[in-house]
Amino acid sequence: MVHAIRIHEHGGPEVLRWEEVEVGEPGPGQVRLRQTAVGLNYIDTYHRSGVYKLPSFPAVIGMEGAGVIEAVGPGVTTLKVGERVAYAANPMGAYAEARLMPEDRLVPLPEWIDDRQAAGMMLQGMTAQFLLRSCYVVQPGDTILVQAAAGGVGLLLCQWAKHLGATVIGTVSTDEKAELAKAHGCDHPIVYTRENFVARVKDITNGQGVPVVYDGVGRTTFMDGLDCLRPRGLMVLFGAASGPVPPLDLQVLAAKGSLYVTRPTLFVYTAKHEDLMASAADLFGAVRAGGVEILVRQTYPLREAAEAHRALESRQTTGSTVLLP
Ligand code: NDP
């Protein structure tokens, strides 16, 4: 038996319970992983609260972790006992001291990435990777807008986009977050709780607007974000930290300049094994090259996951947060 954080119903952070669970032996194509660090992500709050409904209870939530393989099942050929790996993938179930994982969803870790960094970088980092390199391909000289620029994904987007030669405009809720974003690639932080970010973006781009908006905030920023785009620009809505965006009248996209909108997910962009490995390799390369620093700015014992959820949802965290089993 091991300990895990389970939920028996959707609800607030109080539904997260520290309980004993059975892990069992790995089946064909599976390994058992002893986890040393677990990543906290906004999606965990959607799974907990029911923004994303879970099919059955009790359920162990969590999508990201790092650790050491302690057993391999029949047919596992690419990984061995004692190897360090990390993941950002289905199946859910990361909030545990140990768990089973399919072999083909695990990424071997280079020795220069420690487990906490790995748990703080895989999900948010590969998200930044596909957003900047695939969804819209950021070019040197682009000026882009990143919403919630001091968050987990936000700080990675700012740093990496800067490393790619872009100018980054980013929104944040406080002056402290503005300082942090500025120190990590955000050329023009805008405190959107007191400044009109549409007017500021127009100002900074001499009235042109930006070719792409990366928006993980959702309800409160989406419509104004459309007004920051130049004609034929792309709105990348990748999350809903402030709540889901209501249904959109597509005529709006014509009226605002023949705009494009996409609502991508990491799990589709890394569904094929070769895409997962390529994304992780690109991320590790950007970190190794010094273009992206992994900022694990909060850690909590895994058993105190409820506290971590409260901090994330009340906008108190910056960068990445790691839970320690
Ligand atoms: P963050 O660390 O970015 O935390 C969310 C941030 O959103 C807050 O810090 C806050 O920044 C901002 N925010 C604005 N309004 C609110 C509000 N009402 N309540 C809470 N936060 C608010 O989280 P993550 O880096 O984990 O995730 C960022 C986004 O990316 C999420 O929407 C997440 O779902 C999405 N995501 C999507 C993926 C995909 O595949 N599509 C993969 C990974 C993440 P501030 O105080 O500055 O406003």
UniProtKB/TrEMBL annotation:
Pfam families: ADH_N, ADH_zinc_N. GO terms for cellular component: cytosol. InterPro entries: ADH-like_C (IPR013149), ADH-like_N (IPR013154), ER (IPR020843), GroES-like_sf (IPR011032), NAD(P)-bd_dom_sf (IPR036291), QOR-like (IPR047618), Quin_OxRdtase/zeta-crystal_CS (IPR002364). Coiled coil: none annotated. Transmembrane segments: none annotated. Keywords: NADP, Oxidoreductase. One of its GO terms (molecular function) is mRNA 3'-UTR AU-rich region binding. Residues 11-323 form the Enoyl reductase (ER) domain. The keyword NADP applies. NCBIfam families: PRK10754.1. This is Quinone oxidoreductase. It comes from Azospirillum thermophilum. The lineage of its organism: Bacteria, Pseudomonadati, Pseudomonadota, Alphaproteobacteria, Rhodospirillales.
